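User: Here's a structure from my thesis project, written as C-alpha coordinates. My advisor, Dr. K., wants to see whether a designed sequence matches the one we expressed. Can you design one independently, without my sequence as a hint?
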Protein backbone atom coordinates (compact mmCIF):
# COMPACT_ATOMS: atom_id res chain seq x y z
CA UNK A 1 0.00 0.00 0.00
CA UNK A 2 1.35 3.38 -1.02
CA UNK A 3 1.84 6.22 1.46
CA UNK A 4 -1.04 8.46 0.17
CA UNK A 5 -3.48 5.56 0.36
CA UNK A 6 -2.32 4.71 3.93
CA UNK A 7 -2.72 8.35 4.98
CA UNK A 8 -6.23 8.43 3.49
CA UNK A 9 -7.21 5.29 5.44
CA UNK A 10 -5.92 6.82 8.72
CA UNK A 11 -7.87 10.06 8.11
CA UNK A 12 -11.10 8.17 7.41
CA UNK A 13 -10.69 6.04 10.54
CA UNK A 14 -10.10 9.15 12.68
CA UNK A 15 -13.20 10.83 11.23
CA UNK A 16 -15.31 7.74 11.92
CA UNK A 17 -14.00 7.45 15.50
CA UNK A 18 -14.63 11.14 16.12
CA UNK A 19 -18.18 10.83 14.86
CA UNK A 20 -18.86 7.87 17.17
CA UNK A 21 -17.50 9.84 20.16
CA UNK A 22 -19.69 12.78 19.19
CA UNK A 23 -22.80 10.59 19.28
CA UNK A 24 -22.02 9.27 22.82
CA UNK A 25 -23.37 11.33 25.74
CA UNK A 26 -21.10 12.72 28.39
CA UNK A 27 -20.42 10.54 31.45
CA UNK A 28 -21.96 13.13 33.77
CA UNK A 29 -25.11 13.32 31.63
CA UNK A 30 -25.75 9.57 31.59
CA UNK A 31 -29.18 8.82 33.00
CA UNK A 32 -27.98 5.86 35.13
CA UNK A 33 -27.75 7.78 38.38
CA UNK A 34 -30.64 9.77 39.84
CA UNK A 35 -31.15 11.52 43.14
CA UNK A 36 -34.47 11.57 44.90
CA UNK A 37 -35.57 14.61 46.94
CA UNK A 38 -34.38 14.76 50.53
CA UNK A 39 -36.65 13.04 53.01
CA UNK A 40 -37.00 14.45 56.55
CA UNK A 41 -37.66 12.17 59.50
CA UNK A 42 -37.85 12.63 63.26
CA UNK A 43 -37.53 10.29 66.21
CA UNK A 44 -37.60 10.58 69.99
CA UNK A 45 -34.61 9.63 72.09
CA UNK A 46 -35.17 6.38 73.94
CA UNK A 47 -37.76 5.04 71.47
CA UNK A 48 -37.52 2.68 68.53
CA UNK A 49 -36.91 4.26 65.12
CA UNK A 50 -37.87 2.31 62.01
CA UNK A 51 -37.74 3.52 58.41
CA UNK A 52 -38.68 1.25 55.54
CA UNK A 53 -36.77 1.68 52.28
CA UNK A 54 -39.64 1.12 49.84
CA UNK A 55 -38.69 -0.65 46.65
CA UNK A 56 -41.51 0.99 44.68
CA UNK A 57 -40.18 4.49 45.36
CA UNK A 58 -36.76 3.67 43.96
CA UNK A 59 -38.14 1.44 41.23
CA UNK A 60 -40.00 4.40 39.71
CA UNK A 61 -36.78 6.43 39.66
CA UNK A 62 -34.92 3.88 37.57
CA UNK A 63 -34.78 4.82 33.89
CA UNK A 64 -35.25 1.28 32.62
CA UNK A 65 -37.73 0.35 35.29
CA UNK A 66 -41.35 -0.51 34.55
CA UNK A 67 -44.34 0.10 36.74
CA UNK A 68 -45.49 -3.00 38.49
CA UNK A 69 -42.20 -4.80 37.92
CA UNK A 70 -41.79 -6.36 41.39
CA UNK A 71 -39.20 -8.90 40.25
CA UNK A 72 -36.38 -6.37 39.93
CA UNK A 73 -33.73 -7.11 42.57
CA UNK A 74 -32.69 -3.95 44.41
CA UNK A 75 -29.91 -3.77 46.97
CA UNK A 76 -29.67 -0.83 49.37
CA UNK A 77 -26.59 0.68 50.95
CA UNK A 78 -26.77 3.25 53.74
CA UNK A 79 -24.13 5.27 55.55
CA UNK A 80 -23.81 8.45 57.51
CA UNK A 81 -23.22 11.50 55.37
CA UNK A 82 -19.50 12.10 54.82
CA UNK A 83 -18.75 8.92 56.78
CA UNK A 84 -18.28 5.32 55.63
CA UNK A 85 -20.61 3.67 58.15
CA UNK A 86 -23.85 4.15 60.03
CA UNK A 87 -24.06 5.52 63.59
CA UNK A 88 -23.57 2.92 66.30
CA UNK A 89 -27.21 3.00 67.36
CA UNK A 90 -28.59 2.61 63.81
CA UNK A 91 -28.71 -0.74 61.96
CA UNK A 92 -29.67 -1.80 58.47
CA UNK A 93 -31.21 -5.10 57.40
CA UNK A 94 -32.46 -6.51 54.10
CA UNK A 95 -33.13 -10.21 53.89
CA UNK A 96 -33.38 -10.47 50.09
CA UNK A 97 -32.98 -8.11 47.08
CA UNK A 98 -36.66 -8.68 46.34
CA UNK A 99 -37.69 -7.44 49.81
CA UNK A 100 -37.56 -3.93 51.27
CA UNK A 101 -34.76 -2.77 53.50
CA UNK A 102 -35.10 -1.32 56.98
CA UNK A 103 -33.16 1.23 59.01
CA UNK A 104 -33.88 0.73 62.69
CA UNK A 105 -32.41 1.47 66.09
CA UNK A 106 -32.89 3.30 69.37
CA UNK A 107 -31.21 6.73 69.57
CA UNK A 108 -29.93 7.89 72.94
CA UNK A 109 -29.93 11.30 74.54
CA UNK A 110 -26.39 11.89 73.28
CA UNK A 111 -27.61 11.67 69.66
CA UNK A 112 -29.81 14.75 69.77
CA UNK A 113 -29.67 16.81 66.59
CA UNK A 114 -29.97 16.25 62.87
CA UNK A 115 -28.11 13.45 61.12
CA UNK A 116 -27.79 12.93 57.37
CA UNK A 117 -28.14 9.34 56.17
CA UNK A 118 -27.27 8.67 52.54
CA UNK A 119 -29.13 5.75 50.94
CA UNK A 120 -28.06 4.27 47.59
CA UNK A 121 -30.36 1.85 45.74
CA UNK A 122 -28.66 -0.46 43.25
CA UNK A 123 -30.51 -2.25 40.46
CA UNK A 124 -28.99 -5.68 40.08
CA UNK A 125 -30.22 -6.08 36.48
CA UNK A 126 -29.48 -2.72 34.84
CA UNK A 127 -26.67 -1.52 37.16
CA UNK A 128 -28.53 1.72 37.78
CA UNK A 129 -28.32 3.59 41.06
CA UNK A 130 -30.68 5.99 42.80
CA UNK A 131 -29.57 8.04 45.82
CA UNK A 132 -31.58 9.71 48.53
CA UNK A 133 -30.62 11.75 51.58
CA UNK A 134 -32.52 11.11 54.81
CA UNK A 135 -32.41 14.01 57.29
CA UNK A 136 -33.07 12.35 60.64
CA UNK A 137 -33.75 14.68 63.58
CA UNK A 138 -33.48 13.25 67.10
CA UNK A 139 -35.57 15.13 69.68
CA UNK A 140 -35.72 14.53 73.45
CA UNK A 141 -38.61 12.48 74.79
CA UNK A 142 -41.23 14.70 76.43
CA UNK A 143 -41.84 12.37 79.39
CA UNK A 144 -38.28 11.08 79.69
CA UNK A 145 -37.04 7.51 79.63
CA UNK A 146 -39.43 4.86 81.03
CA UNK A 147 -38.17 3.70 84.43
CA UNK A 148 -39.55 0.15 84.01
CA UNK A 149 -38.22 -1.81 81.05
CA UNK A 150 -38.70 -5.44 80.10
CA UNK A 151 -36.90 -7.31 77.35
CA UNK A 152 -38.60 -10.28 75.71
CA UNK A 153 -37.01 -12.85 73.40
CA UNK A 154 -39.32 -13.77 70.52
CA UNK A 155 -38.09 -17.10 69.18
CA UNK A 156 -40.30 -17.48 66.10
CA UNK A 157 -39.48 -14.20 64.35
CA UNK A 158 -36.68 -12.57 62.40
CA UNK A 159 -35.77 -8.97 63.02
CA UNK A 160 -37.32 -7.65 59.80
CA UNK A 161 -40.59 -9.35 60.71
CA UNK A 162 -40.85 -7.33 63.92
CA UNK A 163 -40.10 -3.92 62.38
CA UNK A 164 -43.43 -3.13 60.65
CA UNK A 165 -45.65 -0.86 62.69
CA UNK A 166 -48.66 -3.17 62.71
CA UNK A 167 -46.54 -6.02 64.11
CA UNK A 168 -45.26 -3.76 66.89
CA UNK A 169 -48.80 -2.73 67.77
CA UNK A 170 -49.81 -6.39 67.93
CA UNK A 171 -46.87 -7.12 70.22
CA UNK A 172 -47.74 -4.21 72.52
CA UNK A 173 -51.31 -5.47 72.81
CA UNK A 174 -50.03 -8.90 73.79
CA UNK A 175 -47.61 -7.34 76.28
CA UNK A 176 -50.44 -5.33 77.88
CA UNK A 177 -52.14 -8.63 78.69
CA UNK A 178 -49.32 -9.66 81.04
CA UNK A 179 -48.12 -6.20 82.19
CA UNK A 180 -51.47 -4.52 82.93
CA UNK A 181 -50.27 -1.10 81.76
CA UNK A 182 -51.60 1.22 79.07
CA UNK A 183 -48.53 3.38 78.35
CA UNK A 184 -46.37 0.63 76.91
CA UNK A 185 -44.03 1.49 74.05
CA UNK A 186 -41.31 -0.33 72.17
CA UNK A 187 -37.87 0.98 73.11
CA UNK A 188 -35.58 -1.16 70.99
CA UNK A 189 -35.57 -4.19 68.71
CA UNK A 190 -32.39 -6.24 68.35
CA UNK A 191 -31.65 -9.40 66.40
CA UNK A 192 -30.51 -12.36 68.46
CA UNK A 193 -27.50 -12.65 66.14
CA UNK A 194 -26.30 -9.24 67.37
CA UNK A 195 -26.50 -10.54 70.95
CA UNK A 196 -24.32 -13.61 70.36
CA UNK A 197 -26.96 -15.97 68.96
CA UNK A 198 -26.22 -18.61 66.37
CA UNK A 199 -27.48 -18.76 62.82
CA UNK A 200 -30.37 -21.27 62.74
CA UNK A 201 -30.29 -24.41 60.68
CA UNK A 202 -31.82 -24.18 57.18
CA UNK A 203 -35.02 -25.88 58.33
CA UNK A 204 -38.52 -24.66 57.60
CA UNK A 205 -39.83 -22.58 60.46
CA UNK A 206 -36.47 -21.93 62.12
CA UNK A 207 -35.96 -18.24 62.93
CA UNK A 208 -33.08 -16.21 64.32
CA UNK A 209 -34.97 -14.72 67.25
CA UNK A 210 -35.57 -11.09 68.20
CA UNK A 211 -35.08 -9.22 71.48
CA UNK A 212 -37.86 -6.67 71.98
CA UNK A 213 -37.48 -4.14 74.80
CA UNK A 214 -40.69 -2.57 76.07
CA UNK A 215 -40.89 0.30 78.54
CA UNK A 216 -43.54 1.77 80.81
CA UNK A 217 -43.92 4.27 83.65
CA UNK A 218 -45.93 1.73 85.62
CA UNK A 219 -44.53 -1.04 87.81
CA UNK A 220 -44.18 -4.62 86.68
CA UNK A 221 -47.12 -6.96 87.09
CA UNK A 222 -46.98 -9.91 89.52
CA UNK A 223 -46.93 -12.21 86.49
CA UNK A 224 -43.70 -10.74 85.16
CA UNK A 225 -42.18 -10.60 88.65
CA UNK A 226 -42.91 -14.30 89.21
CA UNK A 227 -41.38 -15.18 85.84
CA UNK A 228 -38.05 -13.66 86.94
CA UNK A 229 -38.09 -14.90 90.54
CA UNK A 230 -35.29 -17.13 91.90
CA UNK A 231 -37.64 -20.14 91.79
CA UNK A 232 -38.25 -19.52 88.10
CA UNK A 233 -34.53 -19.16 87.41
CA UNK A 234 -33.95 -22.47 89.15
CA UNK A 235 -36.57 -24.17 87.02
CA UNK A 236 -35.00 -22.66 83.90
CA UNK A 237 -31.60 -24.05 84.89
CA UNK A 238 -33.24 -27.49 85.13
CA UNK A 239 -34.75 -27.16 81.66
CA UNK A 240 -38.30 -26.50 82.89
CA UNK A 241 -40.71 -23.65 82.24
CA UNK A 242 -40.62 -20.76 84.73
CA UNK A 243 -43.47 -19.98 87.10
CA UNK A 244 -46.18 -17.68 85.75
CA UNK A 245 -49.60 -17.14 87.30
CA UNK A 246 -51.15 -15.42 84.28
CA UNK A 247 -52.33 -16.35 80.83
CA UNK A 248 -49.74 -16.15 78.05
CA UNK A 249 -51.34 -13.59 75.76
CA UNK A 250 -48.46 -13.73 73.25
CA UNK A 251 -49.27 -17.16 71.79
CA UNK A 252 -49.60 -18.17 69.05
CA UNK A 253 -48.25 -15.17 67.00
CA UNK A 254 -45.23 -14.72 69.27
CA UNK A 255 -43.30 -17.51 70.94
CA UNK A 256 -41.74 -15.93 74.04
CA UNK A 257 -38.71 -17.56 75.63
CA UNK A 258 -39.66 -16.85 79.24
CA UNK A 259 -36.31 -18.05 80.60
CA UNK A 260 -34.66 -15.14 78.75
CA UNK A 261 -36.99 -12.49 80.18
CA UNK A 262 -35.11 -9.53 81.64
CA UNK A 263 -36.70 -6.86 83.83
CA UNK A 264 -34.85 -3.63 84.48
CA UNK A 265 -35.87 -0.82 86.79
CA UNK A 266 -34.02 2.46 86.20
CA UNK A 267 -33.47 4.70 89.15
CA UNK A 268 -33.31 8.43 88.47
CA UNK A 269 -29.89 9.83 89.21
CA UNK A 270 -28.95 13.33 90.28
CA UNK A 271 -29.04 15.72 87.37
CA UNK A 272 -25.99 17.90 86.93
CA UNK A 273 -26.71 21.63 86.82
CA UNK A 274 -26.61 22.97 83.32
CA UNK A 275 -24.55 25.93 82.18
CA UNK A 276 -25.82 29.39 82.98
CA UNK A 277 -26.11 31.42 79.84
CA UNK A 278 -25.18 35.08 80.06
CA UNK A 279 -25.58 38.00 77.73
CA UNK A 280 -22.23 37.38 76.11
CA UNK A 281 -20.95 40.87 77.04
CA UNK A 282 -18.40 41.55 79.76
CA UNK A 283 -19.57 43.48 82.76
CA UNK A 284 -18.57 47.06 83.30
CA UNK A 285 -14.91 47.53 84.20
CA UNK A 286 -14.41 43.83 83.70
CA UNK A 287 -11.43 43.29 81.46
CA UNK A 288 -10.65 39.82 80.27
CA UNK A 289 -8.04 38.17 82.45
CA UNK A 290 -6.27 35.28 80.79
CA UNK A 291 -5.40 32.32 82.97
CA UNK A 292 -2.14 32.59 84.84
CA UNK A 293 0.81 30.51 83.75
CA UNK A 294 1.48 27.26 85.53
CA UNK A 295 4.14 27.39 88.25
CA UNK A 296 7.39 25.71 87.20
CA UNK A 297 7.90 22.30 88.66
CA UNK A 298 11.18 20.84 89.86
CA UNK A 299 11.67 17.69 87.82
CA UNK A 300 15.13 16.82 89.16
CA UNK A 301 13.96 14.59 92.06
CA UNK A 302 11.71 12.59 89.80
CA UNK A 303 14.51 12.22 87.24
CA UNK A 304 16.97 11.02 89.88
CA UNK A 305 14.51 8.53 91.30
CA UNK A 306 13.72 7.21 87.82
CA UNK A 307 17.43 6.84 86.97
CA UNK A 308 19.10 5.88 90.24
CA UNK A 309 16.64 3.34 91.59
CA UNK A 310 17.00 0.93 88.62
CA UNK A 311 20.79 1.37 88.68
CA UNK A 312 20.91 0.59 92.42
CA UNK A 313 18.78 -2.52 91.96
CA UNK A 314 21.01 -3.68 89.07
CA UNK A 315 24.14 -3.14 91.20
CA UNK A 316 22.72 -5.20 94.07
CA UNK A 317 21.85 -8.02 91.69
CA UNK A 318 25.39 -7.98 90.25
CA UNK A 319 26.91 -8.16 93.72
CA UNK A 320 24.65 -11.03 94.71
CA UNK A 321 25.47 -12.93 91.51
CA UNK A 322 29.20 -12.36 91.98
CA UNK A 323 29.04 -13.63 95.55
CA UNK A 324 27.22 -16.78 94.51
CA UNK A 325 29.62 -17.49 91.64
CA UNK A 326 32.95 -16.59 93.27
CA UNK A 327 32.57 -16.86 97.02
CA UNK A 328 30.36 -19.93 97.23
CA UNK A 329 32.60 -22.27 95.21
CA UNK A 330 33.44 -25.62 96.82
CA UNK A 331 37.16 -25.73 95.94
CA UNK A 332 39.48 -28.71 95.31
CA UNK A 333 40.93 -28.73 98.81
CA UNK A 334 37.54 -28.83 100.47
CA UNK A 335 36.42 -31.57 98.13
CA UNK A 336 39.49 -33.69 98.93
CA UNK A 337 38.95 -33.27 102.66
CA UNK A 338 35.37 -34.53 102.35
CA UNK A 339 36.40 -37.57 100.21
CA UNK A 340 37.63 -40.85 101.77
CA UNK A 341 41.31 -41.81 101.45
CA UNK A 342 40.53 -45.07 99.67
CA UNK A 343 38.56 -43.28 96.97
CA UNK A 344 41.32 -40.71 96.52
CA UNK A 345 43.91 -43.52 96.26
CA UNK A 346 41.89 -45.30 93.54
CA UNK A 347 41.47 -42.05 91.65
CA UNK A 348 45.18 -41.27 91.87
CA UNK A 349 46.14 -44.80 90.77
CA UNK A 350 43.84 -44.77 87.75
CA UNK A 351 45.05 -41.37 86.74
CA UNK A 352 48.72 -42.35 87.08
CA UNK A 353 48.26 -45.55 85.06
CA UNK A 354 46.47 -43.62 82.33
CA UNK A 355 49.27 -41.12 82.08
CA UNK A 356 51.84 -43.92 81.95
CA UNK A 357 50.00 -45.71 79.12
CA UNK A 358 49.72 -42.49 77.16
CA UNK A 359 53.42 -41.88 77.59
CA UNK A 360 54.33 -45.41 76.46
CA UNK A 361 51.98 -45.20 73.43
CA UNK A 362 53.55 -41.94 72.34
CA UNK A 363 57.20 -43.07 72.70
CA UNK A 364 57.11 -46.64 71.27
CA UNK A 365 58.80 -47.25 67.88
CA UNK A 366 58.01 -50.86 66.95
CA UNK A 367 56.64 -52.33 63.69
CA UNK A 368 52.96 -53.00 63.33
CA UNK A 369 51.96 -56.42 64.74
CA UNK A 370 51.63 -59.12 62.10
CA UNK A 371 48.28 -60.15 63.50
CA UNK A 372 46.80 -56.87 62.41
CA UNK A 373 47.84 -57.29 58.77
CA UNK A 374 45.31 -58.86 56.34
CA UNK A 375 45.54 -62.55 55.34
CA UNK A 376 48.37 -63.45 57.73
CA UNK A 377 49.15 -67.13 58.23
CA UNK A 378 50.35 -67.77 61.76
CA UNK A 379 52.19 -71.03 60.94
CA UNK A 380 53.87 -70.05 57.71
CA UNK A 381 54.13 -66.27 58.06
CA UNK A 382 52.78 -65.88 54.52
CA UNK A 383 51.08 -62.57 53.70
CA UNK A 384 48.52 -62.31 50.94
CA UNK A 385 47.11 -59.10 49.62
CA UNK A 386 43.30 -58.83 49.99
CA UNK A 387 43.05 -57.38 46.48
CA UNK A 388 42.37 -60.03 43.77
CA UNK A 389 44.29 -58.02 41.12
CA UNK A 390 47.53 -58.46 43.03
CA UNK A 391 47.15 -62.27 43.11
CA UNK A 392 46.87 -63.16 39.43
CA UNK A 393 46.76 -66.91 38.95
CA UNK A 394 46.67 -67.49 42.72
CA UNK A 395 43.82 -69.10 44.45
CA UNK A 396 41.57 -67.32 46.82
CA UNK A 397 43.63 -66.33 49.85
CA UNK A 398 40.62 -66.31 52.08
CA UNK A 399 40.20 -70.04 51.46
CA UNK A 400 43.94 -70.93 51.86
CA UNK A 401 44.57 -73.38 54.73
CA UNK A 402 46.52 -72.22 57.71
CA UNK A 403 48.67 -75.38 57.72
CA UNK A 404 50.90 -76.20 54.73
CA UNK A 405 49.96 -79.39 52.81
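Assistant: Designed independently from the structure alone:
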Amino acid sequence: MEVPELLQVVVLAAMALGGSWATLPDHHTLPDHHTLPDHRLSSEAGAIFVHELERELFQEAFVNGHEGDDATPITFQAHLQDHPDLPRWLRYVQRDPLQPGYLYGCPTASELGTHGIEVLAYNRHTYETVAQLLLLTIIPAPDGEPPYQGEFLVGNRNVEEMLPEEVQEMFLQATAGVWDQDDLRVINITSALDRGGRVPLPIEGRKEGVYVKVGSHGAFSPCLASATSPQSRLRCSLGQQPLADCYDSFAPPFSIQWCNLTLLQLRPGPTAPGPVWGSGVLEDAGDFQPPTEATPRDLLPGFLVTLLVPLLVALLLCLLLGYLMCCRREGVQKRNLETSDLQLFHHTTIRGDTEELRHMAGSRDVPRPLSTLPMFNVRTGQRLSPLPAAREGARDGARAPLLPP
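When you compare it with your expressed construct, this may help: Confidence is low (pLDDT under 50) at residues 17-31.
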